[in-house]
Design brief:
Low-confidence stretches: none
Largest sheet: none
Shape: globular
Radius of gyration: 15 Å
Number of strands: 0
Mean pLDDT: 92
Length: 106
């Protein structure tokens, strides 16, 4: 798990460079969105492995919501990559959502 996560992080400058160079190319927008979805899904998998022994599922709120946002945006980018970019901003709310879940759980 860790190796795939780190390899996806290592490849991030490639997709970011393509997105920065060709910001209006629809296929590059979709590629970058899928790369972000891959990173957030692998991150969620690592978090799941970390919380599995204690069964502390509330800790998955922030990484889970981030993965959900990027997976929805990646699917949306297949139909309309331009508007899918705006979904990415929702991931900034994930830490607040995770904190809200932890406070609510007590």
């Amino acid at each position: 798990g860790n190796l795939f996560f780190l390899l996806s992080i290592v490849a991030l400058p490639l997709s970011t460079g393509l997105y920065g160079r060709y910001p209006h190319a629809l296929d590059i927008i979709a590629l970058y969105g899928f790369h972000l979805a891959l990173i957030s899904t692998l991150n969620l998998g690592l978090w799941m492995m970390a919380v599995w022994p204690q069964r502390d599922w509330i800790s998955l709120g922030a990484p889970g919501s981030t993965a959900l946002v990027f997976l929805i945006a990646a699917a949306w980018s297949l139909a309309d990559p331009v508007t899918a970019q705006y979904f990415w901003c929702l991931s900034f709310a994930s830490p607040a959502f995770g904190a809200w879940l932890e406070r609510r759980a007590g």
